[in-house]
Amino acid sequence: MKYKMEILILLAFCLLGFLLSEKPRLDLELPLKKPPLLERQIKTEEMEIKRHIPQSDSIMERNLFSVDGKYGDKVERPPENPYRLVGVIVGEKKMAIFRDYTGTLFTAKEKDRMMDGYTVEKIEENSVILKRGKWEKELRILSSKKQEAK
User: Fold this and answer.
1) C-alpha to C-alpha distance for 114 and 130, rounded to whole angstroms
2) In angstroms, rounded to a whole number, what is the distance separating the alpha carbons of residues 135 and 131?
3) Which of 18, 30, 99, 115 has the fewest CB atoms within 10 Å distance of its CB?
4) Residues 96, 106: contact at Cβ < 8 Å?
5) Quick one: which of 140, 122, 115, 118 has its CA closest to 131?
6) CA 86 distance to own-chain centroid
7) Which residue range(s) make up the domain with 123?
8) Rounded to an integer, what distance in angstroms lies between the CA atom of residue 150 and that of residue 143?
């Protein structure tokens, strides 16, 4: 072995370095607390944050997210019975004529879905049966009494 002496010298230096090394001196103590007077000053400075208060309500009156600055019309909730049965057309296709709560006439066939979620189940000569889930109601032409959902 040609390099035997050099390897021994290298190991000796490593051993010597290990024996002469000391434990690192780390300061693991908590930092000193600020004096109470400084803490009070910081708290009072934080409390004195001044914010801009608008002088008028013009910002609240104008919608910033629309071009014209106006808010849209409020959507009114439709009434409990949003439509009435006006007539029934019996022929090749059975159709029912309804008038909604705004006064607009519209037609519906069997299996059509209405605005309140009911489905036209059956169209008869003077009535229409509507169904939503387990609830069912019948609308009659010229009905004088209010029909409740069953």
Assistant:
1) 9
2) 6
3) 30
4) no
5) 118
6) 40
7) 83-140
8) 17
Structural domains of the chain, count: 1
- Count CA atoms closer than 13 A to 109's CA, side-chain side: 4
Is 49 contained in some domain? no
How confident is the model over 80-98, as a mean pLDDT? Answer: 90
Q: Is residue 60 part of a domain?
A: no
Nearest-angstrom CA–CA distance, 138 and 105: 19
Query: How far does CA 13 lie from the centroid of its chain?
Result: 69
Tokens for 100, please give them: 């909604």
Residue 126 included in any domain: yes
CB 139 within 8 A of CB 125: no
113 closest CA partner among 93, 91, 132? 132
Q: How far apart are CA 90 and CA 124, in angstroms?
A: 8
Q: Give the residue, 27 or 112, on which the prediction is more confident.
A: 112
Query: Residues in the chain, how many?
Result: 150
Q: What is the CATH number of the domain that holds 126?
A: 2.30.30
Tokens of 34: 């600020």
Is residue 23 in a domain?
Answer: no
Digit-coded pLDDT (tens) for 59-82: 667 777 877 777 777 767 778 888
